[in-house]
Structures are given as C-alpha cells and as structure tokens.
Amino acid sequence: MRPITLFVLATAVAAMDSVVAAAPASAQATAVNLVHPGASVRIAAHDTVLDPTVRKSAEGEELVAVTFKPAAKPSLVLAPAKGGWSWPADGTLRLRVQNGMPWPVTLMIDVASASKHLTATVGIPPGPPQTVSVSLQATSPRAFGMQVGPPMPFDDSIVATSVDGAIDAHAVTSVTLSMPQPGAPQTLLFGKLDGVAGGDDLRHAYTAIVDRYGQYTRTTWPEKVATEDELKARANAAPDIAAPKGLDRYGGRTDLPAMQATGWFHAQKHGGRWWLVTPEGHAFFSLGVNAVNLTDGRTYVQGREYMFADPGAAKGPFGGAADSRSDQGSQRDNGMNHGRWWDVYANNVARSLGDKAEPAWRKRAVDRLKAWRFNTLGNWSDPAFADDHRIAYTVPILIQGDFNTVGTGFDYWGRMPDPFDPRFVKATEAAVANAAKGVRDDPWLLGYFADNELSWAGRGPQGRWALATGSLAQGPESPAKQAFLDYLKKTHGNAATFAKAWDVPVANWEQVAAKGFKAPDPNEAHPAIAADYIAFLKLYANQYFRTVAQTLKQADPHHLFLGGRLAVRTPEVEEASAAYADVTSINTYTDLPEHGFDVAAFRKMDKPVLITEFHFGSADRGPFGNGVAAVASEEERGKAYARFVDAAVASGVIVGTHWFQYVDQPVTGRILDGENAHIGLVGITDIPFEGFTRAVTDANARTGGGSGGAR
Question: Would you indicate the residue range of the signal peptide (predicted)?
Fold first, then answer.
C-alpha cells in the first residue's frame, strides 16, 4: 500500500466568488493542469475558494486545494479562454483528485458543449490521490447487464459507472466540479484534467470481477471461500440451532387457544386479530421465503466474457441459452441480456452435493428453513418441494393468453390483462386448472397467488388513473373501453352532458369511442372526472378478482386465494382484493409494514393481509446492490428484519411475512432483469450468512416459529 497523506485545511474561506484565472487566448490544448493552469483556461469559483499554493502528495504529485463552502451547489468551472476543447467522441475524461477530508465526499462533474451536458456523480474516499474517470458517452450498469455497478475505487481509480446526457466531445465548452449542498466546508485537491481517447477505463472497471465460484474478486467477507474443499465444508455444515417446541406438524402454535380445524389452511379472526390457521386448527403466522429454487443464480456470460474468471462455464453442464429482450419496463435500457448463461448457484450446489443434487439440496434447504424457524415456501419456489410434504407451500396462478391488455406507462412486468375480455376468462380457467393439478387435495398447500405485481397504476402523481386513461385511449374493439363507455353512458346519459362534466370537446359518443381519445387529468373544476375514474377502477379490479376467485373456488374449494401480490396499487385494487381474495397479498419494501400500505384501511375493512415480499440488503457481501430496502451493513439486516416482523405481528391484520429471497443474486445480475443485490439468507455459494440467520431465527421464534432460539 502507498503511504496516505491527507490535507486537512482550515475551514475559514472567503465569502466572495472569484475568477481565479482568465486570459484572452485561443484554447487548442485539451488538458488542464489546475496547479499550473496557464493563460488558456478560465477558472471561475462560485461559493468555492481555490488556494493556488502547490501541495505535494506523499509520492510528490503536485495538487492545489479547492474548498467548497456550505451553499446550494458550490462549484468550480473550468473553461477554455477561447473556443472549445476537442476531445475524442468515444473518449474518457480523467481527473486527478484527492480528498482533503477524513470522510468520503461527493463530487459532481458536468461536462458541457454549449447547451448540452454530460453529468456524473462519484464518491471520493479519504486517502491518496486517485484518478476519476468519466466516459464521454452516456452509460450505466444496465448497459453492462446489471442494475448496480462495481464499487469504487479500485486500482487507484474511481470510474463513474453511471453517466447521463450527451455532448459534442469535439467542442467542450466547460467542465464544472461541484458538490450537493455541503453542510460544512469540504476540501478536495485537484491536479490534471484531460479528455483522452478510448473507453478502456470503463471496461476495466468490469473486467475480472467474478471468480470461479461466482464471488466478487476485489474484496473479502466472512463467508467468502477460496477453495472447493472450503465451499463444500461450509455449505454442508448443519445449522447449530435448538429444535422448536410448541408447534403442530404444520408449524401452528399449540401454546395458543385452538381454533376451527377444517383439514385445510384457512384464515380466521380470533382474540382481536387475524390469523392463518393450520389444518389441525392452530394459529399460524406464515414466516416464508421466496424463490427457494436452483434456477435463480443464472447470469449472462455471452458478450461480457471478460468479467468472468471462468467464462467457459457457460458452455458446460451448468450453462444454457436464453433471450430476455422484451418491451417490458424491466428490460428498458438493459444490455447484454441474451445468449449463453451460467447458473452460478446450481454449479456451487453441485460442488457441495455432487451430481444429481436436487433431492439433497431440497432436504438441505428445508432443514435450514425449519432450523431458522421459517414455516412456508413463498412464491417462485421449486414445485418439487410439494412432493416432500415437509413444509407449507404456495402456488402461483400465471394467467397468459391472447386476451386484450392495457398499458399504464409503467408496465414493468408487462401490460395489464383486460379482465372484461372473454378470452381472459378462458385463460384464467386454463391457468387455474394447471396450477391446481396435483395439489388441490394437499393439506400442506397454503394457497394460490394470482399473477404477480401487475401494473395497476402508472408513474407520477396522476399514475392512479393510468388504467382508466389507458383504456379510453384504446379503440372501440377493446373490451375494457367498451366497459368504460357503458359506465359513462349510464352515468351521464348523453354525450353533451358528459362533455360538460369532463370539459372535453366531444359532440357524440363515437368521438369518445375512437382510438386515441385523450382523457383529461382530474381537476377541482370538474370533479366528475376523478369520480368516473374511481368508479371504473373499481369495476376493473372487481372484474379481475371476481373472475379469478370464482374460477379458483370452482376448481379447488379447499384452499386459500391469497390475492395478487400487489406492488403498484391503488385504493380501488386493495378494496377489490379484500372483497374477493381470502387474504390480500402485498409486496412492500419499506422499513415497517405500515409505511408500505394503509394498515388502518385493512383494519377498517377487517380483512387479513400477507406481506409476500420484503427484504433488507447491504453491499458488504459481494453483490453490488443493496436491494430495494437498503441498510448500512450485514449486522443491520438482522435488526431491520426483527423490527419489520415484530411490527407485522403487532398490526393485528398481517398474517405472515415472506422474505425475498433465499439466495443472493449473481454479482453480474440475474438473467430476468439484471438485479444483483445481496438480499439472501445464503450466498451464491449456498453458504448461509450466519449472523443474519441467527438474528432471523430469534425473531421468527418469538413470532410463531416455536420456542427455542439460536444457540
């Protein structure tokens, strides 16, 4: 390691902005040395002070200090005295910088060519000088097939993995260095800045980041392994946890008063709160885990072989091919999303359990889950677990077909199904029949989910109305639009009355029926718009949930309809789910359940809720992302889990919480959409995160997983 020299400067700075250097000269040179700027560059300071005193790093590198004052956006603007800098269009901006503070500092870089801008934000840690590298073309980790890029710095470099905007690199008119409203003076030291040819810096940031076990190569953590023997020993180690007591065979609590025993799982209110109830009649708080399967560790290798120590694994027994390209929101701007993939997790499971590992892996997974006091397999879990009858499980009903769909503008997993379309009814019947096959008489089945995270709303403040406006934008052949038109005609009578109520320039209903009708946003002057939208959204949601509920109860009258795993949602869809589903399932990624949905509304409706996705992630165990709900460290994950589950139990309406997910996502992103977060109970090597699982065990044990905690 090189010796580290920090320059901690006085915080008293001048109050006036200043122009540090200016001279009327042509600017043909492309490089700027802030230590010796010369006459060809203008340096303007706004709420900053540039100290021209030359300072030297431990290795003798010359730098000058810039102090950014507490202000909205203190900045230092570098510009050619005349003309513009001509940099390579496919090049890279490089800037030498050192943090003068004993804590990390955020630096924003704006490269401009006239009115065009290219922007990036990087974190500068304390330590020796580093080279900040910014591509002169927009980029993001999505372009490399993952949602979050590798952490910085590495090899004395800080590469901006996210760059927004576009410029004419041959005519750069300024570079602005700034900070986002510092609370106290912050000092950075700068040296040379230049635009250089080639994009090797960005590629280098992603080169050789995955070892042969699928682990990130540039750092270490307690669960990281170096050899196959180590992997095998740690993955096969049995959890050291006491056996649970006070539970029936399904995981129901025998320490609480018995409830109705129907032979099937059901929902029942007892003692002032809602419970799930086991087939034997005991209170059951569903502590579940999503995606307990062998297929979530797949990541694309083709096109980015340079990222992997063993790219040939994609052509071996744990490789395959797929194509994730689509017009869904989950794939927008996602690159490297097709071709050969490597199943990292399955490969590691085989290393620890040998060939044909599936049965042994399922036993190991269930043994772990029960030891950690989980009692339910959540959505996306291996259907083969149903044959083992050792733990409660859930089944998804995935409704697919050629029925009409409606776009909301969000459409993350696709457009909304049109439940008014008769073809949707037929598709629902087929999907329900397929889901119930072989499980309808199984008492271990907790229940069924319908679809997953449908786009019930759009983005932004007007997103609540997206299904209504999207339906009206369709042509007269759309069943959803026909249903809306029928409602409007019944409500308003004639087109003139409707036009006045909505303040729209239509003379007849044919104009409204025409494709491309632009529906207005609700406003105070015309309350009928919002009232009609709300009424239609209720019609839409009721039609969907009624269709699924009636079809499911005909095919399987025994088991619970667990709703639609709502993520993007409206009050109307929550009410419809509560009316037709036995339990409303909600996916929410918040610190507490009540910050993710209206608990009071469900108390008022007196209906049970199942949290079917939540998690807390951190970025200190390999994968670059820290999940949707991020915490600072691995230790904090366990604390956050306990707070969330305790609050769910205290709500009185929540009957279970399902963690997403069992295994960490691949460093380079899952093939579905590039997600690459540390959110698992186990790593990609199938080695449990011991500290986290012990905290989870203790929380689960006091919640409903039986007495006896981690030893």
Answer: 1-21
